[in-house]
UniProtKB/TrEMBL annotation:
It comes from Copsychus sechellarum. Its main location: membrane. This is TLR7 protein. GO terms for biological process: canonical NF-kappaB signal transduction; defense response to virus; inflammatory response; innate immune response; positive regulation of interleukin-6 production; positive regulation of intracellular signal transduction; toll-like receptor 7 signaling pathway; toll-like receptor signaling pathway. Residues 466-610 form the TIR domain.
Length: 626
């Protein structure tokens, strides 16, 4: 109940703890060094988008529990970084700066102008990201300590937005020791060939937007477990390109007929933007598991008319051919159940001359309305339409041609639509009423009683000679709070030899049998001040809202601010009302101190707040402002 924060308030970061994970987020705080006071049990530390120029071996002392460090964008390359803060010198990482972090699993060092892979990294690393740096050479020694790496990002170290003006070099044995590597990204590095000796455990290889002009038979032979291969953008079409573009010497990327023979587990293949003019069927003869193939932004207008290669890809789910002038499309003998308006761009389907659809198990339900409507109106030739383009179901439609589907059976009757709208509105209205009553019941309840009193001619009685010095409003159902009020608050204010205060307490001074609303109103009216003892559970209760409204009403009716707030727990930290009150009348907002040495000062401040009118604080602030 009375515990405080477990990290210093001077820490310029957000700290969150959940299920054993302690996350410290220092993103974009204009830091020039790693801040002190980071909790020792932190597991995730984010220091991205700052201006920290140096990492020392002592930087992460006492943070041995760290599992992930995000240190991206502390020295972004000139052409990639913000114009208002140009980083002229690269981030410096002393050897062994991360060595003591034996629990570290993920390390992000992107966009820091690093010239080489840092040395002395912990062997526990499984993810290392070094994209958008100035690393132009990768040697085997760079990974000598990183045998457990599974995910490695090295992209964007040498391309038109981060130029290097040298050739990107990868030693032949550079990746030989990475026996657990599953994901490798070398995108946008001006590479001219696929690096040799890649780990056979590799499952994802991203090598797009390079300058690879030829793929040899053996380049991918050692990657039997590869599932995703992205080779796009290695030989782009340069006409009207929005970036510096050099045409391929042979006008197209050259791919050996057996280049993909060993990729039996490949699921996704991206060959878009490679100026391809032909597709070899032999590429796909072993790709029985291929589900996604991207061939967009190539020169395949004639090749796609035959598309024999598609017969070798039985598991294909998604085919991106880009904007071709397609005239002949054969979709026969597949497992197509429905064709929707969104299945084809209008400029593609309306330009077709012939469309083959026979041999598919079409579902003839109301989802097929647009498809049947289009078939009955299109000028596209559909062979065997009346005999072999048939329904696979449901029920009586099985075996019938799709052209015989009665479109009118799927039209919604207006009365049913109206009934549905009314019932849906009723259900929605009931839900809104239930939620609103749950959230604002006490607000409506108070407003009703207040307005009723006004209509009956009731008015507040002025009370210059109040019976009590303060009425204490608290959560009487919370045993801990109840004990604090009776043993601490009452003892300090009523039973001291110095000035004694007369308090109004719910359990002691309320009239039995009288309505709660009347007791609250009398207690607030007959007291000079109203003290709110705030906890997480109390601020959510209707009793707190009603009491607060009544106390605040005295400010509106009598121009008397009688509210004093005592925080037993960290609540309402972002409340605009609390922040404004601290600014206007700081003496009326008190926090229960954790340290026993500070408690006498707290009691003195509370006594001063009870004995002093809040208007004095307002007058003092007004004088300071003027």
């Amino acid at each position: 109940l009375l515990s405080g924060a477990w990290f210093p308030k001077t820490l310029p970061c957000d700290v969150e703890s959940s299920e054993g994970t302690v996350t410290v987020d220092c993103t974009d705080r204009r830091l020039t060094e790693v801040p002190r006071g980071i909790p020792g049990n932190a597991t995730n530390l984010t220091l991205s988008i700052n201006h920290i120029p140096h990492i020392y071996p002592t930087t992460f002392n006492h943070l041995e529990s760290l599992e992930e460090i995000d240190f991206r964008c502390n020295c972004v390359p000139v052409k990639l970084g913000p114009k208002d803060h140009v980083c002229t010198s690269p981030l410096k990482i002393e050897n062994g700066s991360f060595a003591a972090l034996t629990s570290l699993r993920s390390l992000y060092l992107d966009a820091n102008q690093l010239a080489e892979i840092p040395r002395g990294l912990p062997s526990t690393l499984s993810l290392l990201s070094l994209e958008a740096n100035n690393i132009f050479s990768i040697q085997e020694a760079s990974f000598s300590e990183l045998g457990n790496i599974e995910v490695l990002y090295l992209g964007q170290n040498c391309y038109y937005r981060n130029p290097c003006n040298v050739s990107f070099e990868i030693e032949k044995t550079a990746f030989l020791g990475l026996k657990k590597l599953t994901i490798l990204s070398l995108k946008s590095n001006n590479l001219t060939q696929i690096p040799p000796n890649l780990s056979s455990t590799l499952r994802e290889l991203y090598i797009y937007n390079n300058m690879i002009q030829e793929i040899q038979e053996q380049d991918l032979s050692g990657l039997p477990n590869l599932e995703i291969l992205d080779l796009s953008g290695n030989c782009p079409r340069c006409y009207n390109a929005p970036y510096p573009c050099i045409p391929c010497p042979k006008s197209s990327i050259q791919i050996h007929s057996k280049a993909f023979d060993f990729l039996e587990n490949l699921r996704i293949l991206r060959l878009n933007s490679n100026s391809l003019q032909s597709i070899r069927s032999s590429w796909f003869k072993n790709m029985k598991n291929l589900k996604e193939l991207d061939l967009s932004q190539n020169f395949l207008m004639r090749e796609i008319g035959d598309a024999q290669f598609l017969t070798l890809i039985p598991s294909l789910v998604q085919l991106d051919l880009g904007a071709f002038e397609l005239r002949y499309l054969d979709l026969s003998s597949n497992k197509i159940e429905i064709i929707k308006r969104s299945s084809f761009p209008e400029n593609v389907i309306n330009n077709l001359k012939m469309l083959l659809l026979h041999g598919n198990p079409f579902k003839c339900n109301c989802e097929a309305v647009w498809f049947v409507w289009w078939i009955n109106r299109t000028q596209v030739t559909i062979p065997l339409l009346a005999t072999d383009v048939t329904c696979a179901g449901p029920g009586a439609h099985k075996g019938r041609s799709v052209v015989f589907l009665d479109l009118y059976t799927c039209e919604l009757d207006t009365s049913y639509l109206l009934l549905y709208a009314l019932s849906a509105s009723a259900v929605l209205g009931l839900m809104v009423f239930t939620v609103m009553s749950h959230l604002y019941f006490w607000d409506v309840w108070y407003s009703y009683h207040y307005c009723a009193a006004k209509l009956k001619g009731y008015r507040r009685l002025s009370s210059p000679d109040a019976c009590y010095d303060a009425f204490v409003a608290y959560d009487s159902e919370d045993a801990a709070v109840n004990e604090w009020v009776l043993q601490e608050l009452v003892e300090r204010l009523e039973n001291q030899k110095a000035r004694q205060f007369n308090l109004c307490l719910e359990g002691r001074d309320w009239l039995p049998g009288q309505p709660v609303f009347d007791n609250l109103s009398q207690s607030i009216q007959l007291s000079k001040k109203t003290i709110f003892v705030l906890t997480k559970s109390y601020i959510k209760s209707g009793r707190f809202k009603t009491t607060f409204y009544m106390a605040h009403q005295r400010l509106l009716d009598e121009k008397m601010d009688v509210i004093i707030l005592i925080f037993l727990e960290k609540v309402l930290q972002k409340s605009r009302y609390v922040r404004l009150r601290k600014r206007l009348c700081r003496s009326s907002v008190l926090e229960w101190p954790i340290s026993p040495q500070s408690q006498p000062y707290f009691w003195q401040c509370l006594k001063n707040a009870i004995a002093t009118s809040n208007s004095l604080a307002y007058n003092k602030l007004l004088k300071e402002t003027v």
